[in-house]
Task: structure prediction
Amino acid sequence: MNIGIDIGGSHIGVGLVGSSGKVINKKEVDITEKDKKNIEKMILNTIINFVKSILKEQDIETRELGYIGIASPGTIENNCIYNVVNLGLEKLDIAKVIKKEFGLEVKIKNDAKCAGIAESMYGRTKAAQDNIYLCLGTGIGGAAFLSNKLVEPRYKSGMEFGHMIIQKDGRQCKCGSKGCFETYCSMKVLKQEIRETLELDENETSANIVNEIRKHINDLRIQPIIDEYVQYLAIGISNLINIFEPEMVCIGGSFVFIGDLIIPKVKKEIQDKKLLFNPRKEIDIVLASLGNDAGIIGAASLL
Result:
């Protein structure tokens, strides 16, 4: 058994994971705007308290665990987290604190890569040797697998699909560039545009906004928003297919809650606009099967 920790742009999840990838016990909490004012303290305190609670509830000693794995946005170097733009963190040296608290080895990897690993080991892409995992949530992250191996550059962790430029001089991104993929196709952006168009309360929950999207999918007020979202998502996915030629593209994050409505439109857009260099009769774009547990499971399954 290992502890898996998923630090997201809007939530933190901590789970005890068995050898088969099953989450035995899980704790999670949303990150509020107030939390972001002292985000480093909030992250550390939350993780430490959640791990202690899980161990107590399961009546487990730390010596019975293998390691603690952390899935985090940003760039991971020397077991330290850098440049988490959606949380305003330039650096988070978390491993030393967690190791000192629990006396266990701490492994850290980018959150989207962890989710991709989980889907490849236990989820939707298990049968696909070459696949792309794309996480659409607060931002956009991803992972690429060729011959069942995660693609990992030597210089930086790479695969920052969300910061692929898809519009010249486009929307300002928190990374400092303009026109990044995630400024057009993150779920955060889509939900905000839908909320404003439908004149929903600014404190409306993400779940309620998703329900409103499903309810109003054919509403003339939001059709132009959905159409534009589909166009940009088709461009981003086509770029990835043209580069990696995967057997399958798997999409996770909160997108899974509306993906059944969007994916058919994206496939049609790709085919109608002839966006692929090597045309395909069928484009295999699927939804992740592990949901919000993917980051936790992947972090607890690192080699």
About this structure: The chain has two domains: 2-114+293-299, 127-287. The radius of gyration is 19 Å.
